[in-house]
Amino acid sequence: MKFIYLTNSRLPGEKAHAIQIMKTCAALAADVTIRLVHARRVNRPWLQSIVDLQKYYKLPRDVERRLVYSLDLFSIVPNLPFGKFLAYKVVFAIQTITYHIALLPLLLTSTADVYYTRDSLTAALLIILRKENASTVIYEAHKYPSSRLGLALSRWLSKKLDGIVVLTNILATRYLELGVSEKRISVVPDAVDLQDFGVFSKSAARHQLSIDENMFVVMYVGHMYHWKGVDTLVEAASKLSDNEQIWLVGGTPEELPRIEQLAKQLELTNIHLAGYVPYEDISTYMAAADVLVIPNSGDSDISRFYTSPIKLFEYMAAKRPIIASNLPSLREIIEHDETALLVQPDSPSSLAIAIQRLRSDLHLSSRLVDNATILVSKHTWSVRAKRILRFIDSVMSMSD
């Protein structure tokens, strides 16, 4: 089977979707011939030297890539004296339009059994250009549109696409309400490569990172968007002792000042910001933790209903007890008091109580880790790829 995966994404990238794309494509490459087509973008300074994506993302096999031109003006926006919010919208529109124009010759001349994308505009372009029954078009949806235009596009796509892959059951319900046939939609959460984690012991990881062995380390790994709930974790630090430390790993130069300011306002001494960390070092940081946290906010639909955090599966693979917000999207994978402790979203006090409970109850921590270790074995990138391929086979057989 010949597979073309299309994405208007910066690769390598500082966001989790870059990991998800590369890991999914590498896993699919075990069973199909796949080419990853993505936009040529101006990369972040700390990623510009990376050329070997297989090594950087610890992929089991290389993925053939083809870059497509786009006019990327994002780097000029931070230097503007005013109007940055509007400027970001304008340069995003320019980049998206030029990418899809440059994509046209490739789509008109290429042949593939399956075209797969997580971009709704690309999916629309594939539907418009394809010849009848010439190929299968699959759209992987990661959220539900909030704008009237986005909703209209999704409603049109739902009648034209061969299949839709979604991350959560709630997101599947949203698309079913648009008229998608139940047989043409599949729920496939995110995943993890188990071999990427568990390499270092806690002691060895802390020695490498110069973290005090006597500290109780509560860690968050990821971006600092408001809906990720990191502000709640920072506020929870004020309810902990000095030797109960919060480590925040990740974030970009645009996000970190907000967190630094909050910690300063609260006069916290037990907050440590590690900043952006290369993917290859993430497992070392997780190994150094006593507890790993997903403090997602309940104020956002993507957080409540649609997300399938890669960090959740990585946390389980790292074999550390997990505290997470009690949200429907997360409950689709983990269960309170069985594989994690689930706490009230946006509640620093609930989060602090759960942290101290895990510190004092080693039996509970061990039981959560053991149960999560069994659970995560069913959520590898290889398993995810096979589920996607089985779904594609089923929609292709319906078309035949």
Explain this structure to me?
The protein is of the alpha/beta class and 400 residues long. It folds into 2 domains: 2-191 and 380-399, Rossmann fold, CATH 3.40.50; 194-376, 3-Layer(aba) Sandwich (Rossmann fold). Helix content is 44%, strand content 16%. The protein has 16 helices and 13 strands. The chain has helices at residues 16-28, 53-56, 84-109, 120-129, 148-160, 169-177, 202-209, 230-237, 256-265, 279-287, 301-306, 310-318, 328-331, 348-360, 362-376, 381-399, and strands spanning 2-7, 33-39, 64-68, 114-117, 136-141, 163-166, 185-187, 216-221, 244-249, 271-275, 291-294, 322-325, 341-343. Strands 3-2-1-4-5-6-7 form a 7-stranded parallel β-sheet, sandwiched between helices. The protein is globular and about 65 Å long. The model has no long low-confidence stretch (mean pLDDT 95).
Uncertain residue segments: none
Distance between the termini: 15 Å
The ordered string of helix (H) and strand (E) elements is: EHEHEHEHEHEHEHEHEHEHEHHEHEHHH
Mean of pLDDT: 95
- Strand percentage lies at 15-25%
What are its keywords?
7-stranded parallel β-sheet, 44% helix, 6-stranded parallel β-sheet, 400 residues, Rossmann fold, alpha/beta, 2 domains
Give the SSE map.
Elements lengths: L1 E6 L8 H13 L4 E7 L13 H4 L7 E5 L15 H26 L4 E4 L2 H10 L6 E6 L6 H13 L2 E4 L2 H9 L7 E3 L14 H8 L6 E6 L8 H8 L6 E6 L6 H10 L5 E5 L3 H9 L3 E4 L6 H6 L3 H9 L3 E4 L2 H4 L9 E3 L4 H13 L1 H15 L4 H19 L1
Parallel strand pairs: 1-2, 1-4, 2-3, 4-5, 5-6, 6-7, 8-9, 8-11, 9-10, 11-12, 12-13
Helix pairs in contact: 1-16, 4-5, 7-10, 8-14
